[in-house]
Amino acid sequence: MGAQVSKRACFDEAMTQMIADSYAQEYNRRGVWNKVGFLPVSVVRLERPFRGAAFVCLEPLMSGSYVKHNDNAGHIGTRDDTPQAFSHFTYEESNHLLVVCDIQGQGADLFTDPQIHSFDGKSFGLGNLGADGIRRFKRSHRCNSICRSLRLPSLQSTSSSGAGGAERRVEVV
């Protein structure tokens, strides 16, 4: 059972990081002055399990200072505008269905190991706190100059609608 949990956790982590990077690419296309990106991650099957794990996630080594900008519980760790605006962007770009958070990495623009909160709390691994995680993010976020330049609406008292134009109300206040 432990190997299956490890395998699932590795694939969830890799999927989360790839989805976060796809949002980063769209964010960068919007003309922001501080581009962001996520390290590539690979899931590797070990010939001999290490500490019971048959699968591990690997990514390039980050050099330089490592910073945690925000976490999946709604806490903000730095005053850097870019990571906070990026998280806000993902919420708006996903039509309020998710938010990429737990932004950490090198400086304010190269990130690793994010978490994604989804409106239904499904997928994306154990760090997905669902609608509660989205609420926590919205409560702690304060729009900054990047949010305003991207014309992102204030997060105070917004409701969610589903993708594809179909009206779907999800209460996340």
Primary descriptors:
nucleotide-binding, Alpha-type_PK, serine/threonine-protein kinase, globular, 4 helices, single chain, Protein kinase-like fold, a-kinase_dom, 20% strand, 4-stranded mixed beta sheet
Could you explain the architecture of this structure?
GO terms for molecular function: ATP binding; protein serine/threonine kinase activity. Residues 1-155 form the Alpha-type protein kinase domain. Keywords: ATP-binding, Kinase, Nucleotide-binding, Serine/threonine-protein kinase, Transferase. This protein is an alpha+beta fold. It has a single domain (7-150), classed as Protein kinase-like fold (Alpha-Beta Barrel). 33% of the residues lie in helices and 20% in strands. The chain is built from 4 helices and 8 strands. The strands form 3 sheets. A 4-stranded mixed beta sheet has the order 1-7-6-4. Strand 2 (42-50) and strand 3 (53-58) form a beta hairpin. Helix 1 (2-29) packs across helix 2 (81-93). The longest helix has 28 residues, at 2-29. It is globular, with a radius of gyration of 16 Å.
> What is the topology, as strand order, of the major beta sheet?
1-7-6-4
Largest sheet: 4 strands, mixed
Rg (C-alpha, Å): 16 Å
Order of helices and strands: HEEEEHEEEEHH
Structural class: alpha+beta
CATH fold topology: Protein kinase-like fold
